[in-house]
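Dear colleagues,

I hope this message finds you well. In preparation for our joint manuscript, I am sending the Dicer-like protein 2 (Penicillium frequentans) sequence together with its predicted structure, so that both groups work from identical material. I would be grateful if you could confirm receipt.
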Amino acid sequence: MRIMAELARCQDNQMVWFLVPTKILCSQQLEYLSQYMPAVSMRMLTGDDEVDCWSNQDLWDTALRSMKVVFSTHAVLADALTHGFVSLRRLALIVFDEAHHCMKSHPGNRIMRDFYHVAKRENVTLPSILGLTASVDVAKISELERNLDATCRAPLVQRQELMRYVPQRGLTEILYTQGYHGTMIPPSYLDTLEETVTKLCEHSKSEGYSIPGELLKVPTRARVIWYQLGAWALRHFLTKSLQGFAQYIADDIKTSSSRSCNKRLLALRTVLNSIVESPGIYLQSPGSISNKAERLLSFLKERSHPDFSGVIFVRERVTAYVLSALLDAHPWTRNAFRCAPCVSNAARSESWAQYDAMSVERNEDVVPQFRRSLKNLLIATSVLEEGIDLPACHLVISYDSPENIISFMQRQGRARKDVSDFVVMRSKDDESISASLKQFSALGTQMQDMCLDHQRSNPVLEMDDEQLENVDLQLRLHTGFASSLPKMIASVVADTRKLFAVRY
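The corresponding structure tokens are as follows:
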């Protein structure tokens, strides 16, 4: 592998820095490389280590002492370079996993723009750059290559053998109608809730006290839940919100000296109470769930079997929480699936975290449970789109349509079984989604063709084994480790659409 080759020839004080977009992917890549190279000292630097508080060189020197491979998000290395705690001279190789992010003001591009390219103009010794991605917008390939000082390429050597390990994925559309049995009118109490929260927000600004942002988002999120999932899901969301909100009010009243503030908070609690205490909503009764949710549940019911393993992608964190609860409660699905939401916690403020009644297990726990079949259906946001290895997954459902080609290809790539299905839900009235899916598929083929054209720039020919020892291998660590070398290599680059951005 490229990392092994770089470590074998670099200076003793140099290391490899492996950059990933998310903490969950950081943990995965560290685990896999540690298995493959057990003798190499490695570590991960994340927010759990409080790296943003490391304000002196001694802390960094201690953390990096004797380390040969370091894993982190792009922001960690960008900040360390900015404050001078790490220099490019110490880096033999920088690996950009999910390299398509290195655009514009992204921390990965800041590393290249503010440090690498500056050093290059000064003729300073530079680290090698290896970028890995399965999805590049064709229109942005040239810009990405300039940013990474690299050429996007797909593997040609042993390509026929690698093709045998590429999952065969079918594309299916699930059509639904908007609304609930012909009506699109939301419950009137949503207007009351929105009005109460708006008054609370205005009052907090005029009186100078603060309200958690999550609290102010309740009306908007409630409408999203009603529109996407239906009345039962809305009731569940507001009940959970009330649990956390009631505790917040109790704590705030104890410490607040503002009677008017407390009055506004209590008014909001009264509105939520009136909603939650209204007559119950029973699943399977008309209007209890949206037609979109009903079509999803019907599809899952048909696909249920003992070895089921799938992922449902949604756009909003709150949708992931509530859809998971709906699947756990509905008679069609509650005994067939072991569900769990998988979302990013980055957007949740620490001040509100203790009141968040919908908080769930950490992603670091949920994904391993899925791999061990303790969970067999994840409801995930984009945090699970990129690079996460789910070998047993045979069904990926996009509950909200992919927003761009990157999302389309990344979601599709999570279906890792030999025969897998990628399902996209769309409204019967929205033909634009079908057109977009066809366009995404065509762009994916065009992207692959461009990256297989090694004559496009810096031509490279296929070489025999003796010549290969002088060439850096560009292999994507993507799945587990097989017992035989050919199969292991195929697992490492199981998706032949992986692109390699390599500096020569």
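For the figure legend, we might mention the following. The longest helix spans residues 231-255. DSSP finds 20 helices and 13 strands in the chain.

With kind regards,
E.M.
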